[in-house]
Amino acid sequence: MTDNHVHHDDGGNGRRYQSVQCPPLLTLGATRLAEPVATPEPYRPDQLSHTESARLVQAKADAEEALTAYHSRLKTAGDRMVDAWHRARVGLHRLEVLLAERELGAAARREQQVEREHATDGVEDRRHRPGWQHPVLVWAVILISAVYDTVFFAGSFRDAIDAVDDVRSVEYWVSFLPGFGIFMALTLAGYWLGVPLFRHRARAERRRWRRRLGWRILLRRVFVLWRPEDEERQPGELPWPSWVLPVSFAVLVVGVLAGWAWLRGGRLLMSDLQWPLVGLLLLLTVSAIAFKAGAHNPVADRARRAGRRRRDVTRRYDRLKAESQAQLAGHEKAWQELHLAVEDAVTGVWRHVTDAWTEIAEGRARHGLTGMVAPGFVTSGDTDASARTLFAGLTGPSLRLETLRVTQDLLDRHRPEVLSAEQTALTERLNAQLDAATAGSGPDPVDEYREMDKG
Q1: Dihedral, CA of residue 384, residue 389, residue 393 and residue 394, to nearest 10
Q2: Those residues with Cβ within 8 angstroms of residue 198's Cβ, 6 or more apart along the chain or in another chain
Q3: What transmembrane ranges does the database entry give (predicted)?
Q4: pLDDT tens digits, 272-311
């Protein structure tokens, strides 16, 4: 084909000269700024390319650096958990001491023994103390009687020591000091009379037989022969009642106060009131002594001590158990806080490695050099985040996560289940001890009769 005498070649480039081939592309070789010149070749799915290895190494560095941000939280939670563990151990130790002392069983056994001893008392239970014999009321009556006697005899005391009847003088107030002696004298007289009185009543109540008593026998036993036959005290019985010292001291106290009352009555203008006044003072004094002697009831005191001891030990057991439960609950909360802190740290650290493996998987899907089927996932219950893998057959560089390993070991050694199992075992043994004592498995080795003279 010709156009204006110009020859065109269909295989040319549209110009009058032949096409020239371009020279080959020059590169700088494999650098960090360009892709490698080597042609990628297929490789097995269980192998890593240089690019994939570099990505995992970078993820390792990022993960280890991210762990440092969790150090403060892990340390705080770990310290709190360890402190809670030791507090819980102290609470369990107190329960162990209570179990070793066997105080719970002894208190219940003591109360059961008192109940058995007085089960046949009937309506007149010897453990019963009337309300008007309450210890507070007894001490109040003695104190009022002593104060009344002191105020009444203060004038006679001042006359005896030649004191001036003036409230501004020291002698005036010294005249009231004998009131303390009167209070102590009334207390001792009542108590000393109450001891043999109770022993006599207790021995008389245990006698099944009584001999006939006439006026001749009564006069003979009072003035000639007090004890007609020999008696033997059985083991466990109360001591013999002794009347000499209590009666002598009570007579002395009543006699001295009667003498002062007679002297005080002689100072009054109306001498006709002297003997009635003496009688009134004697009645008040004898009433206070008798009130104290009648209120002496060691049986009621022993029953009250046994019940109080049982209540105190039971309250102690309930208090220690409640404290131990609260301490165990506090330790469990602290353990949960540390566990969550570890999980957050593992998640934050593993996120960098997971992102790297995600990019690797996406890259393999694009170039297809390892095939179109990805390796299977690894399912493992291992809690060590440093050796965790994602795909089967593919492992990356190990992470240096010693902090997580130490903290996880701390969690494993301080599990709440251990303390909870110990507390359950202790409470079961304490309850069994209480049940055995309540069922009356055996008597208390302490001699109860020795305590009947206390109070």
Answers
A1: -130
A2: 296, 297, 298
A3: 136-157, 177-198, 243-263, 275-295
A4: 667 777 788 888 888 889 988 888 888 888 888 998 999 9
pLDDT score of 450 more than 80: no
pLDDT tens readout for residues 17-37 = 454 454 444 444 444 444 555
Parse the chain into domains and list their residue ranges: 50-96+314-440, 104-206+235-310
Asked if residues 352 and 63 have their Cβ atoms less than 8 Å apart, the reply is yes
